[in-house]
Write a structure and sequence with these properties.
single chain; 50% helix; mainly alpha; 9 helices; 204 residues
Length: 204
Amino acid sequence: MNIIDLSKYIVNQFSDQSPAGITPMKLQKLLYYIKAWTLVAGRQLLQEDFRHWDYGPVNRDVYEYYKQYVGSVISPSEPDELTISESEKELVDFIVENYIQFDAFKLSAMTHTEEPWKKTNKDDVISDNLIITYYSRQQFAQNFNPFDLSNNPFYPLESYSFVADMTKKDAREIAKYSSYSIHKKALDTAEKEFEQQWSNLTLI
């Protein structure tokens, strides 16, 4: 899969879901996490390399293609034809949906806490081996073993806010949802409740 074609698909498909749009830095991190989690899933969709740059993993081709935007939001446009199966699209969409809520600087900060970026020297390529070794140990990896949104429980991204005396195993079980659709419904309900509370406050 061509990384530039995939980047256009993400901008076109997910800009409306991104709270502040998609900037080049945010796009880089979304593409990096697609590479990471598809590697973990054993269905690598991106062959291109990501390097250790100051603000996190960066693919040079994507950087060159979008550098005119600098820190501005990328305008959606008609994507080139993306050669992707329905199962691959489902996988890509699932990964992006779980990261799209975070802004570029939060995503950058997240990669800075993770071993693949930390253990790679500046400007060097982050190896697939480092990526697989680290991310396969994370809670979110359980969603890909195997990847089946309709039948498997869903494990959200770790928030790192677990109670100090709680074991990691216990924390994962508490965070687990019976399905991805249940998780999305819970998020939607929480968002609507927040909007209602905010609306009530502004009327006071």
